[in-house]
Amino acid sequence: MRLKSACAGPGTNTCFGRSDYSVCAGAAGCTNGLCQRNPLSSSVFPWAERTDRNVLYCIRLFVENHSGVPAAVFTVPFTVPVETRRMPSSTPQQLVDSLAAKIADRTAKVGIIGLGYVGLPLISAFVNAGFRCIGFDVDAGKVQTLLQGRSYIRHIASETVAGWISKSQLDPTSDMSRLGEADALLICVPTPLNESRDPDLQYIESTAASIAKVLRPGQLVVLESTTYPTTTRDVMVPILNGNPAGLQCGRDFFAAFSPEREDPGNPHFTAAGIPKVVGGTDQASGDLAAALYGHAIVSVVRVDNAEVAEACKILENTYRAVNIALVNELKMLFDRMGIDIWQVVDAAKTKPFGFQAFYPGPGLGGHCIPIDPFYLSWLARRQGMSTRFIELAGEVNTFMPRYVVSRVGDFLNDVSRSVKGSRICILGMAYKKDVDDPRESPSFELMELLMHRGAVLSYSDPHVPSLPPMRHYHLPPMNSTPLTPEFLAEQDCVLISTDHSAFDYPFIVRHSRLVVDTRNATKAVTEGREKIRRA
User: Fold this and answer.
1) How far apart are CA 466 and CA 355, in angstroms?
2) Which of 71, 128, 212, 294 is the most buried (most CB within 10 A)?
3) Residues with catalytic roles
4) Cα separation of 517 and 499, whole Å?
5) Domain spanning 401-534: which CATH class is it, in words?
């Protein structure tokens, strides 16, 4: 005698007298209920009942003699844990159609992971387009601030956030088990460099692992974080494919890349007003992502695949980094020659074609431009190439804070002072003018370099009231200092690192002994120009 297992048979929907089971549609090769397929991997077994932990199935056990003739039949239920089941699922096209319909009528729930300078403006775009959003962040402080109707980003008003919360348009949370509630998940997490200036994808990887735990059929996952080409397909998707339910990208869920293009503080271009490049890991994924963004963004630029979209973002930022390196190197050369680099650039940009103006500074800042060229160089090394031009640009830009500190030392020497023991106030800790975003700001490196040389440091920044903790810099707690005549007069040097409009430059120069300007912020100052030095 031998034991065989099979489904309850085509058309059956009962087990031990119960009639609330799904009707079995049978399968190829299923004859008179004798199905040769493995019950744990076959969708022909009726999905009878689902609890929080298990799925109940119903099978028949056929006891046969050696001739294959059924000798006895037993009908028994059994359960499979939710975490390991092979669930009956819709066809890939049905999943596509279902999500496309939700996107079309704006009932799709959009989950934004990472509620920082990229994620929060993205929420604004989708809320304004009529979607409801879930905001995910591991920082419980950010979540609590949003729940209280307050914003922590200068160009997103607290009144706006309060409106989202009161109208239930935004549901902020730190509970990553809720990732399965969203129909589309947009990942906006940091992608820094590690100590050896190689890509650090830990935040993408950990986010993908959190999604995989609760991934469900029909979800769309879009990576927005700046990274190198192939990250979406070769890093994120394999982690998602490792989900406990066995769901696979392109069949059961969808994945795409769409690079963020946020320009903090730019009043002319909001997240909704900047064209969105979109590339999918397959045709359906790209179509769904393009349809989603098409509702919230002014225009969608569809490209062939995720790799093109990833490379597009790298090109945009490397283009800027290389050109900034050019003018930074020219600044160092022209400084020796007594030529004003800012006048040179302003004169050159009068040419109506073939030239775009880039300006020098104390170093690169922000979340993309200081990082992306190194991502590209790392990728080139993996391909057996060296991107010498890009790497040289990175070296020039990385050197700029040291150049500025060296010039500060020279200027202090001119007035019989040394850096050690000198009182130096840095103006501006944000990475760019008129924003509160300190990410990768060169001001932190300037501060650390000057501190190591023994300077007595302070800073003033109306947008950064206290120094935030930074991944790569170890500075003591410090608060912004108001610029009073008495305070300025006490400083041996005032170093302009970020040219905020809020600073009164004639006032600063009037009351200071020495002003070192890295941004040409004092170009309109007429009184006391003998105190101004450029670096």
Assistant:
1) 39
2) 212
3) 368
4) 9
5) alpha beta
